[in-house]
UniProtKB/TrEMBL annotation:
Localization (cell): Membrane
Sorted UniProt keywords: ATP-binding, Magnesium, Membrane, Nucleotide-binding, Translocase, Transmembrane, Transmembrane helix
Annotated transmembrane regions: 16-38
Membrane topology according to the record: Multi-pass membrane protein
GO cellular component, one term: membrane
SUPFAM superfamilies noted in UniProt: Calcium ATPase, transmembrane domain M, Metal cation-transporting ATPase, ATP-binding domain N
Taxonomy, superkingdom: Eukaryota
Name of the protein this chain belongs to: Co-chaperone, variant 6
Family matches, as InterPro entries: ATPase_P-typ_cyto_dom_N, ATPase_P-typ_P_site, ATPase_P-typ_TM_dom_sf, HAD_sf
Major site of localization recorded for this protein: membrane
Single GO MF annotation: ATP binding
Amino acid sequence: MYPIQHRKYRDGIDNLLVLLIGGIPIAMPTVLSVTMAIGSHRLSPQGAITKRMTAIEEMTGMDVLCSDKTGTLTLNKLSVDKNLIEVFAKNVEKDYVILLAARASRTENQDAIDAAIVGMLADPKEARAGVREIHFFPFNPVDKRTALTYIDSDGNWHRSSKGAPEQVKYLF
């Protein structure tokens, strides 16, 4: 077409590059969705059922997966056994550790881990009772923890954090 119109091929190449570079961001979500679907399909012969496409991406970043067959697979509900909680700090009760973990959880979302921790409280509203939330740091795969900065009823500032032990231990 360019020789017929006596136009330079360079103009055509420039236009082609503009279309290619502009089209890549538009096509990226589709390409990622198809890639995740292919990964899900390849995992299905091994008995893996993926409810969320992002679960495949999250699992690729895991080193160790701990699963409780008796609770997770049969009841489809996570739970925390209070008897298995160990507190290494002196003069700190298990109930207080549970309260701090519940404060570092989102009470309104449907995350299974947060629901299990908040479910240990007598009333889920206890997690935010008497405190004013300043900043909630949501979980992300890089930091592997959540945190809540809050002010208690006496006006003292606190930060409660929960997450992967290898990340949380460096906070002290």
